[in-house]
Amino acid sequence: MTAILLFACVGLIAGAFLLLGISPLEFTDGLFGFLTRKNKSIRAEINETSHRKKTGFLRREIIEVQEILKLTGRSSRFSMVCAVSLILFAVGASLAILLDNVFLVPVLAIGLMFLPFWAIRLTATHYKKSVATELETALSIITTSYLRNEDILTAVEESVQYLNPPVRNVFIEFLAQTKMIDPDVEEALHTMKPKIQNDVFHEWIDAICTCQYDRSLKTTLTPIVSKLSDMRIVNADLEYLVSEPRKEFIIMALMVAGNVPIMYFLNRDWYHTLMHTLVGRVIVAVCTAAIFISTAFVIKLTKPIEYRR
């Protein structure tokens, strides 16, 4: 009976979308846009500026995902990510209702809703690592050429053929701007900064701009580039240290989740107590919440270390 009512509810929602002529993407855009909308009161702006009041967890996650998608050139996919998140929210709530566990409804719904956001954050981690690796090679080649000829345009022209995207695209745009739009090298250098979100790259740009006025400061470029090598070594050591605890967490989470079907085959009385009594349902909800919360902390704590000026 519960399944029939659930399917009827799904049909009712689908019919409402068809009657109102609203697409799922438009609905999710409006919903998540409302959730991320800033409070325009003066008090809220003062609290946000002075960091007296922290941004809500959901709003913080949505804003971070928007920034990641913008950074990786996938801003157009935000609507799809929101739609998948909303579908998983409904799937989690429906699954908990089918299991007849009211305590599990908010846990599964909210936990599954954050899965697309966590997936985006994991892809951002790999993207930043690849960009940092390519940036290390690019800045090293360009710096070596610049130390020899003391002309940043010539150095970039000599080195750009050895670079790979996305770093190569940034330097190609730099050459195009200086040759075809505006010959102001310093302005073109500053235009490059927001295209790659890396503090070492920003520091290197500032040092190159300073060298335009005093060529003797070019010796500061090599130590700046070496910071990327240091960060790569530190992140490699960190990855080695966290790989084993992360593997243990995955195994423990699978064991906790797998205990329920195993209990069904080994001892039906224990399974009935766990799934059909008040205490058992609370235990299942608490364990599920612990898995989702632990996953969020693991993703947060295993991010690569980034250099901060």
Kindly describe this structure:
- The protein is mainly alpha-helical and about 300 residues long.
- Among the domains are: about 20-115, no CATH class; about 130-230.
- The protein has helices at about 1-20, 25-35, 40-50, 55-70, 80-100, 105-115, 115-150, 150-160, 165-180, 185-190, 200-210, 220-265, 270-275, 280-300.
- Helix 9 runs antiparallel to helix 10 and helix 13 packs across helix 14 (about 280-300).
- The longest helix is centred in the C-terminal third of the chain and has 46 residues, at about 220-265.
- The termini are far apart.
Number of helical elements: 14
- What Rg is obtained from the alpha carbons, in whole angstroms? 26 Å
DSSP helix fraction: over 70%
Low-confidence region ranges: none
> What sort of overall outline do the alpha carbons produce when their principal axes are compared?
elongated
Largest beta-sheet details = none
Share of β-strand residues: under 5%
SSE run:
HHHHHHHHHHHHHH
Distance between the termini: 61 Å
Strand tally:
0
Structural class: mainly alpha
- Overall residue-averaged pLDDT value: 76
Q: Looking at the chains present, what oligomeric state does this protein adopt? A: single chain
Write out key terms for the chains shown:
309 residues, mainly alpha, 14 helices
Give the gist of this structure.
With 309 residues, this protein is mainly alpha-helical. The protein has helices at 2-20, 24-35, 42-49, 57-71, 78-98, 104-113, 115-149, 152-159, 167-181, 185-192, 199-211, 221-266, 268-276, 278-301. It contains 14 helices and no strands.
